[in-house]
Design brief:
- By secondary structure, this protein is an alpha+beta fold.
- The chain has 7 helices and 11 strands.
- It has helices at about 5-20, 40-45, 150-160, 165-170, 180-190, 205-225, 230-235; strands at about 25-30, 50-55, 60-65, 70-75, 80, 85, 100-105, 110-115, 125-130, 265-270, 275.
- The chain has a 5-stranded antiparallel beta sheet. The chain has a 4-stranded antiparallel beta sheet with strand order 2-3-4-9, with helices on one face. It has a two-stranded antiparallel sheet with strand order 10-11.
- Helix 1 packs across helix 6 (about 205-225) and helix 3 (about 150-160) crosses helix 6.
- The chain is elongated and about 55 Å long.
- The chain binds zinc ion (ZN).
């Protein structure tokens, strides 16, 4: 399942090809993904110029000069290709192209963009750009963790008075947008904060550390994305391409990588999701 860094990698891959480009010819090969495609979708896209490619949480939002915004959620296996090349590979066994390609378009620059989604959990919409932030998918979202508005103060406001543990609270999209289970585990480890701590009890210094850690784990993951992703997946023999970089996620029973720590990574379940952490390093 693509998390925020994977979606950002896709955005960065598409930006040089789509920004400023006119969508010359659009083809839809089936009526729906997880939900039906918008009405007259191809006609409404055709001829439009892409003014800006934005990511909000795990959504891609392409603002068009027609006053509409093309919104895409990648679901589990949704992938964009550029001239047949994958923009970011997070599910290496998911097929691309052929009968799994549900949308394709060419730009006025002669580039071909495809969207494949083998499991069809992805979805797309065309929304009036002026109203996109008010749409139910977006209106309750907190700030972007990679944006300028995110800092320890945002966390302090989101955590204030909350008895719920900090792990589950960080997954609350109203506190901060787009953070998934993997990167919450990694950020808490980096900030040396126990996932069991009630959110309201995390003090100012630790909030500073946590805000920095959230940003850093995401920046590192985005930087690990890019053109060599498929090679990574092959070399690692079937692992997800980010997985080898995780400090705690998916490492239950393995030695903690913390300097001087002789502890072992533990797994617990919080809010129905696995939390990986080092009880030695995280207090
Ligand atoms: Zn440790």
């Amino acid at each position: 399942m693509p998390e925020l860094p994977e979606v950002e990698t896709v955005r960065r891959g598409l930006e040089p090809v789509l920004r400023g480009a006119r969508l010359a010819k659009v083809r839809i090969n089936r009526p729906d993904l997880r939900f039906p495609f918008p009405e007259r979708f191809a006609e409404r896209l055709e001829g439009a110029r892409v003014e800006q490619l934005e990511r909000r949480a795990k959504y891609l939002r392409f603002h068009l000069d027609t006053g509409e915004t093309w919104v895409t959620h990648l679901g589990m296996t949704g992938r964009f290709t550029i001239d047949g090349e994958i923009t970011a590979d997070f599910e290496e066994n998911a097929p691309v192209g052929g009968k799994h390609e549900h949308l394709s378009l060419t730009t006025d620059g002669g580039r071909r963009i495809g969207f494949s989604d083998a499991r069809r959990f992805g979805y797309m919409a065309l929304l009036p750009t002026a109203e996109v932030d008010a749409h139910p998918w977006f209106r309750a979202l907190g700030p972007e963790p990679l944006g300028n508005a995110f800092n320890a103060g945002v966390l302090a406001a989101g955590f204030r008075g909350r008895k719920q543990n900090v792990k589950v609270t960080l997954l609350d999209q109203r506190v901060v947008a787009g953070l998934g289970n993997i990167y919450v585990c990694e950020a808490l480890y980096r900030a040396r904060i126990s996932p069991l701590t009630p959110a309201g009890k995390v003090g100012p210094k630790r909030l500073e550390r946590l805000a920095t850690a959230v940003r850093e784990v995401l920046v590192d993951a985005v930087e690990a994305g890019g053109s060599t992703l498929r090679d990574f997946a092959n070399v690692e023999g079937g692992q997800g391409y980010f997985q080898h970089r995780f400090d705690v996620y998916g490492r239950e029973g393995e030695p903690c990588r913390g300097e001087g720590c002789t502890g072992v990574v533990k797994r617990i379940v919080q809010g129905g999701r696995s939390t990986f952490w080092c009880p030695n390093c995280q207090k």
